[in-house]
Amino acid sequence: MSNMIPLRSSFLSSSLHHQPTTISSNTSPNPHPHILVFPYPAQGHMLALLDLTHQLSLRGLTITVLVTPKCLPFLSSLLSSQPSSITPLVLPFPSHPLVPPGIEHVKDLGSTGNLPIMAALGKLYDPLVNWLNAHPNPLVAILSDFLLGWTEHLATRWQIPRITFFSSGAFLASVFVYIWNNVEKVKSLSEVKFGHLPGSQPFKQEHLPSVFKHYKRSDPDWEFVKDGMIANTKSWGCVFNTFDALETQYVQCFKGHVGHNRVFTVGPLSLTGPDVSGRGNSGSDPNDKVLAWLDGCPDGSVVYVCFGSQKLLRKEQMEALANGLEKSGTRFIWVVKPGTTQQQDDGYGVVPDGFEKRMAGRGLVVKGWAPQVLILNHKAVGGFLSHCGWNSVLEGIVGGVVILAWPMEADQYLNARLLVDDMGVAVRVCEGADSVPDSDELGRAIAEPMTEGGGVKAKAKDLKDKALAAMSDAGSSMKDLDRFVEELGQLGGR
């Protein structure tokens, strides 16, 4: 494609389930197909889909992005870079008894907020129908997050295709296919073996994705979620923020289940968005202090510690982690999510007294937001102590760093299994949302991968090369992105 987009400059430097009746396979290509993009309001979900939206706009699509008012600022860099082809559709956030007024993003509720936010957003069905009826430019498709599975029913009613965006990997999607179609059977097992997946070792019940573990039969909100998860596999197509070399066998497995080839791997999308420096930032201090500190550190000597935008560590965990970092003897940057005043009074997210003073020079504590992509791509950073959220996984892979895995919830146990057992680019240092690691063991677990000469480090560097290759002009992800755009161009609309 002649308008192929280069990678971010900062990075270079360092069988159909339902056929909509209005669509003809003989239609001539639409040069500017109009699609509705609907991101889910959680950091890892939204950033990735907006990066994909940026790429689609560069390839000539006309795009409407649906957000609620508090999430509109997330579109700022996108709208400034592509003002003519991207239009926001701002609809009021629907009320829900478990979502306080003014809250519209999961980061403001923590992971327990996912259920009520998913349920609340389902109430946008009728406002969306009204918008679709009134909009003069027909849609050819709806592209929406996998946590918004109800949009499949909207698309079916409107007789247009729905494309599911998986901000996660194909391994998770393949697991979802089985567990949501066999809920009662899976719930009755202490260990679950996924016989349809290649080489899958049994999973403990507690290591299954949180959205499934918390499912309660007959609860209206949970039945709504289950219905949406099953609807995802009936969508016209699926787009994954992953790359072929990372999940080849799981991608093929997923294609086998959905029964068609409209499964597109287009990641890591963190390489392709309009702006890397402020990803996920909502108005924090500049990056200069952190990057200047890293400039003074030897290559590969720093461990970056961050558990994402939702997880807040309690007092005992903060103390164990601080002690472990101190005992490791390793340089570090520790990003600490600040809690509310009450949470801080209870010790949540509070750095132990005296720790920062003792670690001055060797460690840097950042309270709030930090430029994660820039940090992970700095030559001084060699390790990443992470909860293994999918966005963090991909950003760690792209940085070529060893991932020190502490999975806690959601899809993180699956992601850690993929990284540690399948790919060998990570080591487990702890697991569990409530676990308090032994600080001596944690110190050793941090230090060893940072000092060993090959093995995991070499595999991490090799996987980085494969990720970059996937996003190059002739790479697998760029080919799939072009194939996706070509397919969209063949669609009619109404």
UniProtKB/TrEMBL annotation:
Gene3D superfamilies in the record: Glycogen Phosphorylase B
Xref: InterPro entries: UDP_glucos_trans
Signal sequence, renumbered to the chain: none
GO MF assignments: UDP-glucosyltransferase activity
Keywords, in A-Z order: Glycosyltransferase, Transferase
SUPFAM superfamilies given in the database record: UDP-Glycosyltransferase/glycogen phosphorylase
Top-level lineage group: Eukaryota
Pfam families: UDPGT (PF00201)
Keyword Transferase on entry: yes
UniProt similarity note: Belongs to the UDP-glycosyltransferase family.
Name of the protein: UDP-glycosyltransferase 89A2-like
Gene: LOC111281483
